[in-house]
Amino acid sequence: MNPLLVIKARVLAAVTRLIGVLLVPVAFCRAPGRARFLACQWALGLRFPAEDLRGLAAEVLTAFTHARAEAFWRDGQLIGLTSGYRDAAEQHRIFTEEVRRTGSVSAARRRVLPPQESRHVRGLALDVRPTEGARWLEQHGGRYGLYRVYDNEWWHFEYRTAAPARLPHPDAAAWPSEHGAAYGLCQIYGNEPWRDEGRPDAVDDGCPPMYADPTEDPRMQP
Questions:
Q1: CB atoms within 10 A of CB 155
Q2: What is the C-alpha to C-alpha distance for residues 139 and 122, in angstroms, rounded to an integer?
Q3: DSSP-H helix ranges across the chain
Q4: Which conformational region is residue 103 in: left (phi greater than 0), alpha (psi within -120 to 50 degrees), or beta?
Q5: What local confidence, expressed as pLDDT, does residue 73 receive?
Q6: Which residues contact 173 (CB under 8 A, 6 or more apart)?
């Protein structure tokens, strides 16, 4: 990375932290019990003026803002939002552009999912910056239900109630019945094509037998 850009980023980070400290008294006048939290959000809003938190699911917004407040005050780390909620039309546009750029749907799916599969459209996914902030969130975000889910996207995090298996790219998550065995994810019941289970008995070259429905699964027998 260009040394001048590195210096600029460090200076901006230092200025943002200073602004956060200076804003604490103002935030205290508005909400005494949440002064540091509010001051952090205001300072980060100034540092990342293009970020848009609207449209995120309520639990995701709460998790993200509290996680980055901890990062800001405990470790002096800044976390900004590059992209959060996207409506279906915007997601379709991004996906179509990626198909055009890569030349195929399968190649595009390794970076972008269509609207019906994207968690951005549901307000459950976050793309963050800078890389240091993403690294902090990868290490500590699980306390807030925020997890990095793809090897090839250091910036992409999703809200989950439990830690998901890390996948190599978005397309692998979209087709777990084909690729999931290597990650312990297997389709179990033929009548539930989109339901996959974590299976400790899965192996790299295949899954255990698939049953027509739950009544045939020996694990479900009395």
A1: 17
A2: 24
A3: 3-30, 35-47, 58-75, 88-102, 105-108, 131-140, 170-174, 176-179
A4: left
A5: 98
A6: 149, 150, 167
